[in-house]
Specification:
This protein has about 400 residues and is of the alpha/beta class. Helices cover about 40% and strands about 20% of the residues. The mean pLDDT is about 100. It binds pyridoxal-5'-phosphate.
Length: about 400
Amino acid sequence: MNELFTLDKTYIAGTYARFPVEIASGKGSLMFSPEGKRYIDMGSGIAVNAFGIADELWQQAVIAQLGKVQHTSNLYYTEPCVLLAQALCQRTGMKKVFFGNSGAEANECAIKAARKYAAEKKGPEYFTIVTMENSFHGRTLTTLAATGQAHYHELFQPLTPGFAYAQPDDLEGLKKLALETKAAAVMVECIQGEGGVRPLSAEFLRGAAEFCRQEDILLIVDEVQTGNGRTGKLYAYMNYDLQPDLVSTAKGLGGGLPLGACLFGEKVQDVLGPGDHGSTFGGNPVCCAGALSVLSRLDDTFLAEVQRKGEVLRGLLEGAPGIEAVTGLGLMLGLKTAKPAGEIVKKCMENGVLCLTAKDRVRLLPALNIPDDLLREAAGILLDACREE
Ligand code: PLP
């Protein structure tokens, strides 16, 4: 076995079933092993490297900030953190931002804010957060509890109490559950990413938003995977004209550095006060400088390109032999395949394309600026892998 793989097995906690691939370097949507094997990256570090590997503008922003100050703690003001919060609010209409380091942390913040709001407004028994079956919201004990997939829960009881799970696309079921449990909030991913790239219906999302508004139940949209341009809009909820009370995001926002954000709408903008929440690294100026570079480029022209690339990729794959369905939006696509998804990912890897799985689906999350020729080359290799022999 490769020496690095052996060292990894010896010293790294065994939580990841890694592929037998070492990445030594890359540029844009290409990655290279130490031996120089070339891979087209159709996963972008699970929707993190929004502009691919070693993007020049992002690098310049990060390096410039590294040369000024790398960390101050949240006891002091730094420009990138404040400017990023301003840009996020101006682009979304949300009012305030809390920065953490990951998607799970962004969700923790949203859950804490929802509980405090509901307890103060309606009473302490209004603490339940209703999430969806088949959802994924993170790995901390609270965000695991929010995750509507029992198999993640089994070994880690007791989880944080106060979560209930509704069936996606069953609006009447959601309403009943939320009222019965005295819900503080309803939390959704517009497209369930880890759950197999399964979109919730527009009708359900709009109906849930309207119900939440009427009942003063907060609507939390988890945009950790779907956010930051991934679906061809800045945030996926914008595809459905929703107005969430809380938005959590991470992954692509930092462009490759750890950064999570919880965005607060008007109702909840002042709900968290001094001492209610915090994060030592949250709003780190280097991560925020990188994020400012990412966000400043996600303008309407660029987002239209993401939609176009998504349509190109979908057009190449939809209806092809061995592909039974293509789900998702923009550059977040899931493939229901005749052969097991794991087999296809393995075959693609051998042939120089790195893709992901999500449950029983092949999942594609390329960099948002992947060039068309690489997209077509990757699709060709994927089509070969999907075809029945
Ligand atoms: N929420 C969603 C929708 C996700 O897809 C993920 C990660 O895949 C998370 C939350 C957790 O994010 P993180 O791994 O950054 O904590």
